[in-house]
Amino acid sequence: MVSGERCLAADDEWSTNNMKEMIGGCCVCSDERGWAENPLVYCDGHGCNVAVHQACYGIVQVPTGPWFCRKCESQERAARVRCELCPHKDGALKRTDNGGWAHVVCALYIPEVEFANVSTMEPIVLQSVPHDRYNKTCYICEDQGRESKAATGACMTCNKHGCRQAFHVTCAQFAGLLCEEQGSDADNVKYCGYCKYHHSKLLLAEGHHPQLTAQKSSARPSLGLSDCSRPPTPPAQPLPFDHINQAQSDSSLSLLLSPGIKH
Ligand SMILES: [Zn+2]
Ligand SMILES: [Zn+2]
Ligand SMILES: [Zn+2]
Ligand SMILES: [Zn+2]
Ligand SMILES: [Zn+2]
To answer: Span of the secretion signal (predicted)?
Structure first.
């Protein structure tokens, strides 16, 4: 299922930046918007809530018919499909080079992880991840009483120099702590995250935001996480088609966005 098709047909004025999806956001970048050249694609697997941008999941060609994420496509027993880098089961997964699975978002934010093929973003290559990352415990899991999960998988660390807080990528994603920051040149995006403390300091610090990638691009490598102030987006929950054109007046937009009001 692809977002945007009906919108394109319904509105010739439809353009890259003025469409707002009511349906849950991308499992990788959390952005809920879709673009003509980078649509949000929803998995048609039974009971699967995966939604991803074409570019966030390495979908070379979006099929016109049903689309299935790799997990649903694999027919592997759901219980066996678990991310090697974190304790969370849902989300957009890909095969790893050792026959396991990992979230695309975990692969992006653990610095040593690579994609064997960068256009298809698979398989995910874990061999360069230092053992140290697997030995760290996630402070977010511990904070939330999931001690048994805290040592599962690998951890990223707070991007603030000198801070030693470690956490799972997906725990940080759900807490809204992941960022994309501008690297040395325009094409260079650094995927990083902060502990809750430094993330809140970051938001308070004046003048930081200009360092973040200001533009939410529809194409990789910027995945749309640039705005650290954005509240965490809940995990994607595909709903029936519903498109909102931001060209509509603000009042109608907010009306349509109000919970309980069906378009
Ligand atoms: Zn995305
Ligand atoms: Zn699926
Ligand atoms: Zn993961
Ligand atoms: Zn965790
Ligand atoms: Zn920190």
So the answer is: none
